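Researcher: Hi, I'm a grad student and pretty new to this. My advisor asked me to get structures for two proteins we've been looking at. I'm not sure of the right format, so I'll just paste the first sequence and hope you can take it from there.
Model: That works fine. Here's the first sequence with its structure tokens right after it:
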Amino acid sequence: MAEVTITREDTDARHGRYVARIAGIDAEAELTFTRHGPDRVSADHTGAPEALRGTGAAAALVDAMVADARKSGFRIVPRCSYVAARFARHPEWADAFA
């Protein structure tokens, strides 16, 4: 599997996105989010262009958000169907989800 680099970009006080990039591929996957107070963040949409499908980029985005939730003390509201599906496969993440 390719090495995926994840960054978090805060668009404004309430919105932002996690971005996945892979060296040598001119494309990026993203997971957009909205803050609903200090302890709730919704995962709104996950998208990956064809060039990044099958690389693990989308899964890495969710993994990064779960790690941030645990580190920063917020819980994730999975509005995105992809995030909800990943959560269903990882019951050990229950502490990170609202």
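Researcher: Oh nice, that was easy. Here's the second one.
Model: And its structure:
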Amino acid sequence: MCFPHAGGSASYWRPLALALAPAVDVSAVQYPGRLDRLREAPVEDLHRLADLIAQALGPSDGRPRALLGHSMGASLAYEVAVRLARLPGGEPDLLVVSGRRAPIAARWRDRYVPLGDAEIIDHLQRLGGTDSAVFDDPDLLELVLPALRGDYRAIASYRDTTGQPLACPVVGLAGDRDPQATVEEVEAWGEHTSGAFRTRVFTGGHFFLNDHTEEVAELICGLLPTRTS
């Protein structure tokens, strides 16, 4: 199960899904307030959103299950994993957190999150994760801004589930030039599980995944216990 970044949609994960097929069945969360869920109000609380997703996923059906999230999606994937771990046999077999500083590391850094529309747009443009055509088209921008506002508000208010609530293996993916999450901050995810932890560093900025799809697919296939299809 894949979790998009702030302002992102399920379609972001299509290249990875193609790279993993047919060995791994990939599904992605479509957050409210975008694309086919455009008419739904965005959820501005990551804990509430994690509750809803965990309820929808439910216990494992016996097949290996991995959760992968990028940026905001990494925090959300972590919270969903925590909730699934409370169910008998529900904890995922693998959690992959990408481009996101660990909760414990977030406490080391200034928690400022842009909330004004102009600030959010400037932030996204600097990260380079959104097609510039979105910002050049006022009508398109008007459609995506509600979801962006909701996601950034969710990030600003988020406080993690503390301690070591997980026992599953966790892998942290980091970009060596990511201004949002340094390699050291990604490595701190190891403090949030009693299971095995490893870090994989890629070249690139915050959206390094875009240039390393095949490598990430190979990594995931090597870490899952067996085929998921």
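Researcher: Is there anything I should tell my advisor about the second?
Model: You could mention this: The chain has a mean pLDDT of 90.
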